[in-house]
Each structure stands twice: as structure tokens, then as C-alpha cells.
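Hey, can you fold this one?
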Amino acid sequence: MTTSSEQRQILVIGGGPAAHRFAEAIASREPAGTHLTVLTEETHLPYDRVALSKALTDPGVDLTLGDAALWEQEHLTLHTGARAVSLDSAARLVRTEDGREFGYDELVLATGSNAATLPIPGAELTHVYRTLEDVWGIAEQVRTLAENLGRTPVVATIGGGLLGLEAAAGVQALGAKALIIDGGHWLMGTQLDQGAGQALGRLVAEKDLTVHGGVYPEKILSENGQVTGVHMADGKVIDADMVIVSIGVRPRDELIRTYNDNQPEGAALFGMGPRGGVVINESCATDIEHVWAIGEVANFGGMCIGLVAPANAMAEVAAARITGGEGEFTGFDTATKLKLSGVDVASFGDAFARAEGALEVIYADAARGLYQKLVVSNDAKTLLGGIFVGDASPYQSLRPLLGRELSAEPGAYLSAAGGQAPDTELPDDAVVCSCNNVDAGSIRNAVGGGCAGCGPVATVSGLKSCTKAGTQCGSCVPMLKKLMEAEMAKNGMEVSTALCEHFSLSRPQLFEAVRIAGLSTYLQIMERFGTGSGCDICKPTIASILASQTNVHPMDAGLAGAQDTNDRVMANMQKDGTYSVVPRIPGGEITPEKLAVIARVAQKYGLYTKLTGGLRIDMFGARLDQLPEIWRELVDAGFESGQAYGKSLRNVKTCVGSTWCRYGMLDSVGMGIDIELRYRGLRAPHKFKMGVSGCARECAEARAKDVGVIATAEGWNLYVGGNGGANPAHAQLLAGGVDDQTLLRYIDRFLMYYIRSAERLQRTAHWIQELPGGMDTVRSVVVEDSLGLGGELETAMERHVSSYQDEWAATLADPEKLKRFRSFVNAPQVTDTELEYVSERGQRRPVDLGASIPVRSSAS
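Sure. Predicted structure:
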């Protein structure tokens, strides 16, 4: 094809992520005398299909891959709206639908895949979830249905895999009622085993996503062209106004099938996989000379996989081979992570323990929506794979260790079982970003100054730009940040205090920025100071900051989706999936009449009752749908939320003090009640507790609290920075012998100073320890007012006190908020019979599900 005076022509058919990565790989190699042409039938620059769900709820989001300047280079040409329809391998010529012809020396097939459709009546009325046009069309249809129907439209998504769940969550975010129809007996059956699938089902149910599982659809029902429901194989009809099909993908190999069909007998043909796709070898070459295939259309080892990591790996191998280099594609990395807010799911490696002699180490508590499994070799040393549902935090550090020996017992890595795995330093060749095959050594090298043209890298965004790590699925970003900061510290560089990749500000800086700007909603903060759509780090942090400054309700100001599970439902989830109810009992003082109310409620709903260490009464075993009923009775009797679920004031423990005790110096009960009523509902970077003792005998254990008050003959002694827990700390004396008014003024200042300047999830003890000057600085600011902030901090606290509202009372008065408290889906009975209880000491409690870590061989 090429003459001595012509450039070598590389032609790519397809404009998805694989084609984009191939173009980047060719451009980085800068092969002299080469021109790359890319044909894509879409009208957009190559975009990130992994992040497609963002475009469903935000049509203006830019998903363009990489730097658009790539396509402005002289030796690269991108033709949009160019659909290839025929191939002549002898003449090395490709024709497009509009009649243009493109010659090539090397041809790369990167045609990707199509969304699979249903071969059932009415399928033409369904939507698929594959392109930007698809998701824009879905969003428009949801809005149109809402306007035309005059009610909330019901959208059924057929398919319970990764994309199906994301599609359902997306239409729910648009205001529709979302249903999921899945033929499998549990969700994400390709990535998760039964235990994990059941746990995921619990979490999905809590998101108000109704799941109909175990039966396949038979027909899409409609009237006058409008969808009315889905007829199932068991005869059941599921009402729906719209249907999205997300049951997987099929390789787009029609161009090659047409080529094979048109060849004369005996001519060389492309090898095709039994379920589609163009067969390739380790070099990504097909059976036809000078034709290569990468991405979802490529069949390797009998499989086509629709994941980013193998597509990128194939693109790199093909680019290397075409330009005279070496490289082999060795197989598929099938690690996946679900991108669904509040639902933590990850799977990697040999997740189903198919390797000979593999052992499974499991912590399972499906009722709580929690499942963690590691698959290890027969000697329990080498990591082969894993599944995490409900808490996928170990995934970040374990994924790079795949195929390596663990430095501790496997059970130590299961955080849900209380494991605290050693902080092992990753070897340089451990892959951190599987999407782009970036190892730990490359990250360290970039931080140390090995990034060409960049110098030392000190930000996550800089790492992304330099190494491409974290630029696609994003699941490796926490590990990138951890590696970067460790290397920076090792090199004597200043470590960034950015809250997360979406905020360059630290939590204290963000708190001040929000306060000064007077922002009052989640979206305002993201638009003004953040980037992207947020994460599990910054979302609850924003919710806490707004609550600290404005006393906003957890479900208002766009915060419902940003809250942790407990804050979202204003109750603590327990191990069996039920919730605890903890009314506030200031100072532990309660009348017999109120005790009778608690007894009546506990008896009525069959709740387990226990006095807590904080002088409260905890009632366990309430279902989600029962919470409003229970709280209505409690609120009517004068109780309010004890906020045992929040990063806020938990309780003020008091002794009986001078009210009854012959040793009591001052009224500790009265002061404890005053303090609790003053600081109730105050959100902070972490939970905090208080105690008031009436004398130095310290029966209220005040010095073990974040704020402790002890009565003396001279007045109150104020101690701060104490806590129990895994790393207990004794509170330190802040001021001695103060009167009631001064005591409250100092506590006001101390708490507001802490709330403004502490990092997320930082207890007061650690905060004081990390402050330059430690306790001396706290005393200087709070007691001596060295920064001149005393009045400002007191005013902020008065604003909190005057605007306080009981969260449960406000919820009961708002029908929209009450919609979030619904029974488990697909449960025809009132109670969930899968929950198991035993009787112990006259009360019921859950059986010990997942109390131990079973180990079993895959052969058993």
C-alpha cells in the first residue's frame, strides 16, 4: 500500500475507549512517516463509557477521554459520523456508508459492542443503555412521562448487572420509581456468588430500588404505543411506564461477518468466536494479515470482555506490534467495582474460587448487607481473588496484591470481621491501576520527579496526568493518594491536605469557605469549590459542615444522597439489618411516666431494651418501616432523637451530684442537662461525648470524655480531649474553678474551634495532639482569646442553639421525608421471616450470623 514517497497508513474502525487508547499509544511512540486515521460513526470525540451514568443525571457533563488536543496533531485524523460498511483485505480498502474509501497498511478493528436486546414481543418499545444518545433519550423520556402522566413514572430496568443497577439508580435520581427485573436468583451474578448477591440485594432494597428476581420477562405490554408493563414467564405482570434493557453486550462484528460471507470458497476468513467477536492471538492480530482487533470486538481465549482494563492492554500491545515493538496480551483482568452511591461492591481475581485447592475465607452477614470473601491458595498464603459487598474498603489495598503472598492471615484483611491488616508497602511491580496497567513503581517514580516535563508530582490530578492512573474507572484513586503521600513524606515534600480528589481544600478550609460564602446546599458547595460528582469522603463531610453551620435536616438541601446510611434513616443499623431507637434522656434523668412510654413501645414492637453506658435506653430490632411509627409515639410523649447515629453530641453522662449524694459539691445533674440541651444536634467532624461529675470521686468518668466537667469547692474544672475506644486518652485540664456562665462560654468556644479546624473523622484527642502547640494552643484560643475569635465562636454556637430542631419531629411532619421509610421490597409478609432470633435472658436477640470466619475449600 505504501510507496517510498507516502506515509504509512494506520486505519482504526471505531471511536470508543479502545480506539482512543490506541491513538494515544501511537502518538506517544511518534513513529516517523506514519499517519493514523480513526473512523467513528458517533458524532462525538471518544468518551468515557465507564462514566456514562453521569450523563444520565447531568446532560452537560463532559465525558471526553483525555486531552481533545490529541486529535489536532498533524499525523492524526478523526472522522466522526463515518460508519464503515465494507472491507477489501486484498486491496486494503475500507468503505464507509457515505461512499468514502480509506486505504490502509494496517487496519485495527475497535468497533466495540452493542447493547444486547430481548427477543420478545414489544422489545422495540424498550430503551438500551450504551451511548450518550441512549442516556440522553432515557432522561428526556422520564421527564416527558412525568409531565404527561401527572405522576411519578415507573421505570423497569431488565438486567441486574453493573450497568443495570447504575441505570436504575440513574432514573431514580431523575425522580422516577425504579424497578429491576433480573432472571438470576441474585444481582450481579457474573461477579458475585450467592452470599454476596444476597447481601447486595439488602443494600439495593435500602435504596428503594425494587427487585424482581428469578423470573425472565416474556413480553413488553403496551397500549397505543405506550409501555404499560412487563409480562413475566410465571404469568405475573409488573406495571411500568418505561423499560430499559441492560442484559449485557454483543460484539459489533457485523462488518467482519459480512466480509466472511462474501468471500469465495477456499479464501482466507477471519476466525470468529462461537458467541461472536473476531479471534485474535497474543499479538492482537487476526487471521487476516495486516488486520488487528482490540477491545470488546476482540475474542481471546474464546471470550469477549466488555471491560476497560483489557481493552487498554490490547490497544498498547497492538500499537507496539504495529510500530515494530514487542508485547503480548496475556488475558483478561475482570476486576469490577460498582459505581452506585451508598452501595459498596467490588470483585476481583478468582472470585468464585475455581482454582484447584482454592480456599475461601468469608465473613457473611447478609441481613446487614455485608459480605467479604478472600480466595487464597491451598496454603492460605497467596491471594487469588475476592468479593466485597457493603464494605469494600480492603479492595484498594488487596487488588494490587493479587497473585502475591499476604503478609498476614487472610482473616486479618476482612475489615467487617474486625481485621486490621498490616500496612504493607506495595512492591514496585504491583499493579495499582489495572485499567491502565500502572504499577506502584511508576507512581513513586512520578512523585520523585520521574515524570517527563512535569518534575515531582504532588497532587492526585498531577499523577493522573502523568501516569494515566485513575483516569478511567477511578477505583484506584484512594490507593494512588496513599502511595503519593507516603512517597512525598519519604522525600521530605509537603503532603497535601486536600479533602479528596474532588476538593483541593482540606476539611477546615472547606468549612471556612462555605461559612464565608454563605452557601446552604450540597450543589452550591460542589459548584463553587468542588469538581466532579463527589465521593464517599466528601459527600458526608459536606453534609456535616452544612449541619454544623445551619442545622439543616439530613434530608434537606440535597443531602439525602450524601449521608451515610445511619444518618440517612436517623437510626443505627444493626447486624441483622434492623435498627436501634435511642431517645434522648438528658443527664440520664427520666420520669416514671416517660419510662412507661418506653416500656410500652418496646413491648408493642418486640424490641430488645438495654441501658447504655451513656445513661440512655437503647431499643433494638426495629424494621425500617417501623421507625416512623415508633418515633411518633415517642415524640408525642415528649422524647426527641438521641442522635446515636450521628457524628454529633451523643450524650452527657452525669452522676447524681449534690441532688442526693452526700459528697456532691455542685448540681452535676442540672449542669449535665443544661449542657446536653445546649449542644444537642451539634454536628462535628466526629462523634463527641461529655460527662459531668459532682465531685473529685468522678463517678461520671468525665475525664474519659471529649468534654469533661468536675465540680470542686472553687467551681467547675473543665477538661477536654478525652476518649475511650481502641486508643484511650485522658482529658486535659483546660480551665479550673470557673462559674456556670464561664464554663458554658469556654465549652462553646472549644467545640466551635474543634468543628472549624479538625479534619474529617478526627476525634478531639487526636485533633489536640495534631494542633501546633497542642493543648497550649487550645488554651490560648479558648481561654485567653489569643486569636480574637471568642465572640465569633460564641455567636456561631448561639446560632446553633436558636435554630435547633428535632430531626425526627421534623421528619414526621413531612410526608415527603416519610416516603424514605418503607418495608423491604418483594416481601408480601409484614415481617421478614428470614431474620432469625433467639431468646436470651427474657428478650429476643439475633442469632450470631457471621460471628466467626469460616474457611472452606472450593472442592467442598
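The longest strand covers residues 217-223. Let me know if you want another pass with a different chain boundary.
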